[in-house]
Design brief:
Number of strands of chain B: 5
Oligomer: heterodimer
CATH superfamily of chain B: Response regulator
Order of helices and strands of chain B: EHEHEHEHEH
Strand order of the largest sheet of chain A: 14-18-19-17-16-15
Distance between the termini of chain B: 16 Å
CATH class of the largest domain in chain A: Alpha Beta
Helix content of chain A: 40-55%
CATH topology of the largest domain in chain A: Heat Shock Protein 90
Strand content of chain B: 15-25%
Number of domains of chain B: 1
CATH architecture of chain B: 3-Layer(aba) Sandwich
Number of helices of chain B: 5
Largest sheet of chain A: 6 strands, mixed
Number of domains of chain A: 7
Chain lengths: 892, 123
């Protein structure tokens, strides 16, 4: 994906977020003009950005949104809940398109219809926009020129090509239709028709046709040339003459007038456009309100499919307005053709149509001088613009500031230089005079006289032209070198640029950070090999000095590695606001759907945690919030009868407690009734009758986390979804977090998640069992104890022991791993027992022996091994061996 | 090396212009609104400005008005680039001090030929 598209998506998402936030704020403050302006600017900029790409569906929706916001901003349409909903929906749609673009870099065709519908819905809210104040342009009469329409070929060109040709023709480039029918024996005369036609420069369209269709296959002579070449070119006439000088009789050349290209095409199976629209457009055209007309046509275009004949015609009207604003006859004819869906007959109309204006004529004549045609066209446009600026009426323009005169002079000078004319002293003199008189007149005089000079120059004898051509050839020859210079400088420039605009934040691909993280992990492991090496140097090779040096070097590397690890961990930290920010919208949508009134309070949004943790939190949190809204908070009526404030309160708070992040979701709803839970659990067979009798209220509430537990009688589309809080629990435990719940009936519920700040480095204790070593995450380990064989009792056929007054079930690791071996004891006949906390209960695991604890980079198992839930992953140890890390939660 | 200041609040548009202009060998600076642009132009001369209209804090018109009334700075040409194509917007731009008014999105070739013209680079 190119950098521009990436930038567009990343900035675009920020805008979508911004738009959503502003809409939320507007809800509380619907008359705030600054908010409205800001909102409009977001939509406007986003639309502008989308216009840089070919995403018509997105632009269409954004354009409609922009018009709507513009109307709201100007007070033409009132801000309403419905409007906000519609806008949010539109922005959601744009978000979906962005997601799709991110993956496929394009927008699927299936979005065209929803886009049109959304745009329509947005425009429906707009009502009928009042037409803007009419600006009647001054139309100066133009010379009539006679164009021969008689032998014009009938052209069937794709609209894009026709448009291009039209623009060339309008801008004063002669567009030639060239037809070449080589003699049938031309192959034997050393002619190469195909090559000849390829020699024609600036060809915009070309076609080879079979000249003799009546011929049957048997009659066909493969050695005779039966082809005809047709092409459209903007190559200069003289050049064509020169090129075709040997085949004058076989070629036909016609200059095509611009209007001949104006030919709507497309699906004619189309309903004529609404008469009202056409009449309205004709009126706007009549009064010369091009702004309103353009707007109306654009709107119509957005509402109709682009491949229709009428859409094509509308696009041509726009082009005519842009290129020939004063050719009203043509515009009118085209607009009227929308009723019949038959293209206007230009040859009839042509008699009454004024020809292309005079300035373009002069540009044609200057063309031959300078190689870059587009530059010359631009030259005249820029000159005309400066003329317009200099002739602005005083009441509009106000006093002429020095700066504006200087800028116009600089522009003129640039233009002269660009077309290779030296007017430096003249321009300077005119500027000084203009500054002294504080009047644009001297510059205007210079402009007119220079334009006359430049057109005169083009009529100078061929000799001078030849020189100019030679000069341009020299420039071309230099071009290669110039290009190198450019690239050399480009490198330097990008450094300069960063120096001038320092970026405060840097957006980096997460993959890169992950890779860096992995590399650092590997370095930590590699570094851990050094103490082994030192040990070997001393014990195996007996070089104690070297061993000491290795150790001191190890200390240095160790420090650097730890610092790197810390830093990269900081990079991965992100604030929880990343997931909190979506809650206002979500809570608003859901509570409105449920008919509840909820005030959402977010606290501690700046609390940071590792990116993986924050991301892992996202789904469980959404689930919890939905649950609170759905089951926790009551409807306003029930709250009122219970003597509570009708507006429920939902608090989401993040805070840091030592090396863990604590997230609390507190509501003041109806709370969880332990009796309901108990009975439900019993019905579902989650607990037996005995448990039902003696289970404490807190334990009963905790049952909501049990697998397959869902209290909602009807599974709503909000919470529920067939899964319960057990999904939340397992998601949280996946990232080594814990979840808990407290509830008071009638008062509310507090749910809390406790998560590690980072899961990059895991501290594990190494244990031995049946000749192998395993790691167990330290955050699960409560303590390590030695249990005498005599202290082990059998209760209900299970081994247990009493530890500090609590019964702790004992399991042998060998049994868990299906190794039929007795755990070993030490010389005092004691079992090494690892007490771990699993699902809130303490369990003892009998192992052979304990070893040290180490920090490791835990890599999850992949492939087939990834399915073995009893292991949470593997890690490399300093000596290069692999440590398998157990997952006691699943194992037990 | 000709130095161009691109003033636009949309990062995407700035990057779009930067890609085009740097590709043609110009040096490009960016400003995200009129205020930031003024801060830049007062300490360093530029050969050309590409100015967006709708920006927070200080819009394109405002920037040009302020800039054109400054003394002792290099008054280089300015191209105003806007999504509005109306005659009124155009005139407003010229009154504020723009030398050319283009409608977004500007095609790369189009932009480049105007830039060359206004800056005075030989074709």
């Amino acid at each position: 994906m190119n950098n521009l598209l990436e930038q567009f998506l990343s900035e675009g998402r920020d805008f979508l977020q911004g738009i959503a936030e502003k809409l939320m704020q507007l809800e509380n403050n619907p008359n705030s003009t600054p908010l409205m302006t800001e909102l409009f600017r977001f939509v406007h900029t986003l639309k502008g950005n989308s216009g840089l790409f070919d995403f018509p569906e997105m632009t269409r929706v954004l354009h409609a949104s922009e018009d709507l916001m513009d109307a709201v901003r100007n007070g033409r349409v009132n801000y309403s809940q419905e409007l906000a909903d519609q806008l949010l929906e539109a922005m959601d749609f744009v978000g979906i398109l962005m997601d799709e673009i991110e993956v496929t870099e394009k927008i699927g065709t299936k979005h065209a219809i929803p886009a049109a519908e959304l745009a329509k819905a947005l425009r429906a809210l707009l009502g009928n926009p009042e037409s803007e104040t009419a600006v009647i342009e001054d139309i100066s009469p133009k010379n009539n020129a006679v164009i021969s329409w008689a032998d014009l070929p009938s052209l069937k060109l794709p609209e894009s090509i026709a448009e291009k040709l039209y623009r060339y023709a309008i801008d004063g480039d002669a567009v030639f239709w060239l037809e070449y029918k080589p003699e049938s024996d031309s192959f034997f005369k050393g002619e190469d028709p195909f090559f000849l036609m390829r020699q024609v420069r600036d060809t915009l369209w070309r076609k080879v046709v079979f000249n003799n269709v009546a011929q049957t296959l048997e009659e066909m002579d493969a050695y005779s040339c039966q082809l005809a070449f047709q092409l459209l070119t903007i190559a200069p006439e003289e050049e064509l003459d020169d090129l075709l000088r040997y085949v004058p009789d076989e070629t036909k050349r016609i200059e095509i007038p611009a209007l001949a290209f104006v030919k709507p095409q497309g699906n004619e199976d189309d309903h004529p456009i609404d008469v009202e629209f056409i009449n309205n457009a004709l009126i706007l055209l009549d009064v010369g309100d091009f702004d309103a007309l353009t707007h109306a046509i654009n709107t119509m275009l957005e509402l109709s499919a682009s491949e229709l004949w009428s859409s094509s015609a509308l696009r041509w009207v726009l082009r005519l307005i842009e290129s020939e604003p004063d050719n009203k006859i043509a515009q009118q004819a085209l607009l009227e053709s929308l009723q019949t869906l038959i293209a206007p007959d230009w040859s009839e109309i042509a008699q009454t149509i004024p020809s292309t204006n005079t300035t373009t004529n002069s540009s044609t004549s200057v063309n031959s001088q300078v190689p870059d045609d587009s530059l010359l066209l631009g030259f005249h446009e820029v000159m005309n613009t400066q003329r317009e600026i200099l002739s602005l009426s005083p009441h509009l323009s106000g006093a002429w500031s020095e700066g504006r005169l200087k800028a116009v002079a600089a522009t003129l000078l640039g233009c002269y230089r660009a077309v290779n004319h030296d007017y430096e002293s003249e321009t300077d003199a005119a500027l000084q005079l203009a500054l002294a008189e504080n009047s644009p007149a001297p510059l205007l005089a210079l402009l007119e006289s220079s334009l006359a000079d430049i057109s005169k120059l083009s009529e100078t004898p061929k000799l001078e032209q030849a020189e100019l051509v030679a000069e341009s050839a020299v420039q071309d020859a230099n071009f290669g070198r110039r290009a190198e210079d450019v690239t050399a400088v480009a490198g330097r420039r990008s450094e300069d640029a960063t120096a001038v605009t320092p970026n405060k934040t840097l957006k980096v691909d997460q993959e890169k950070v992950d890779r860096l993280m992995n590399l650092i992990g590997e370095m930590v492991v590699a570094k851990n090999a050094l103490p082994y090496l030192a040990n070997r140097a001393e014990t195996v090779f007996g070089v104690r000095e070297l061993a000491r040096e290795i150790k001191s070097q190890y200390a240095v590397i160790n420090r650097v590695a730890e610092e790197m690890q810390d830093t990269i961990m900081q990079v991965r930290m992100m604030p929880v606001s990343f997931i909190f920010q979506r809650f206002p919208r979500m809570v608003r949508d859901i509570s409105r759907k449920l008919g509840k009134e909820v005030e959402l309070v977010l606290e501690g949004e700046s609390t940071e945690a590792d990116k993986n943790i924050v991301e892992a939190l996202s789904d469980p949190l959404i689930h919890i919030v939905r649950n609170s809204l759905d089951h926790g908070l009551e409807s306003p009526e029930i709250r009122r009868t219970a003597g509570k404030n009708a507006m429920g309160k939902l608090l989401i708070r993040a805070s840091q407690e030592s090396d863990r992040v604590l997230i609390e979701i507190i509501d003041d709803g109806k709370g969880i009734d332990p009796d309901v839970i108990k009975n439900k659990a019993y019905e579902k067979g989650l607990i037996d009758e005995a448990t039902l009798e003696r289970i404490s209220d807190q334990d009963a509430v905790n049952l909501v986390f049990a697998a397959g537990f869902s209290t909602a009688d009807v599974i709503s589309d909000l919470s529920g979804r067939g899964v319960g809080m057990d999904v939340v629990r397992s998601a949280v435990e996946k990232v080594n977090g814990t979840v808990g719940i407290e509830s008071v009936v009638g008062k509310g519920t507090r749910l809390y998640l406790s998560l590690p700040l980072s899961m990059a480095v895991t501290n594990v204790i190494i244990i031995e069992s049946d000749g192998q070593i395993f790691g167990v995450p330290m955050d699960l380990v409560v303590e390590t104890v030695r249990v005498k064989r005599s202290q082990i009792r059998t209760i209900k056929q299970k081994q247990t022991t009493v530890l500090r007054g609590r019964i702790v079930p004992l399991l042998s690791l060998n049994d868990l791993l299906a190794r039929n071996v007795e755990p070993l004891t030490n010389e005092d006949d004691e079992f090494a027992t690892l007490i771990v906390r699993v699902h809130g209960e303490h369990v003892g695991i009998l192992v052979d022996n304990f070893r040290e604890t180490v920090d490791i980079i835990l890599k999850p198992m992949t492939g087939i091994l990834g399915g073995m839930s009893g292991y949470s992953g593997a890690a490399l140890l300093g000596d290069g061996s692999v440590l398998i890390v157990l997952n006691p939660r699943e194992l037990i | 090396m000709k130095h161009i200041l691109v003033i636009d609040d949309a990062a995407t548009v700035r990057l779009y212009h930067r890609n085009i202009l740097e590709g043609a060998g110009y040096q490009v600076d960016e400003a995200i609104n009129g205020i930031e642009a003024l801060e830049k132009v007062l300490v360093q001369p530029y050969d050309l400005f590409i100015v967006d209209v709708n920006m927070p804090k200080l819009d394109g018109y405002g920037f040009l008005r302020e800039f054109r009334s400054q003394k002792d700075v290099l008054q280089s040409p300015a191209i105003m680039v806007s999504t509005e194509s109306g005659t009124n917007d155009r005139t407003l731009g010229y009154v504020a001090g723009a030398n050319l008014y283009l409608t977004k999105p500007v095609k790369p070739n189009e932009l480049l030929s105007y830039v060359r013209l206004l800056i005075g680079d030989l074709a």
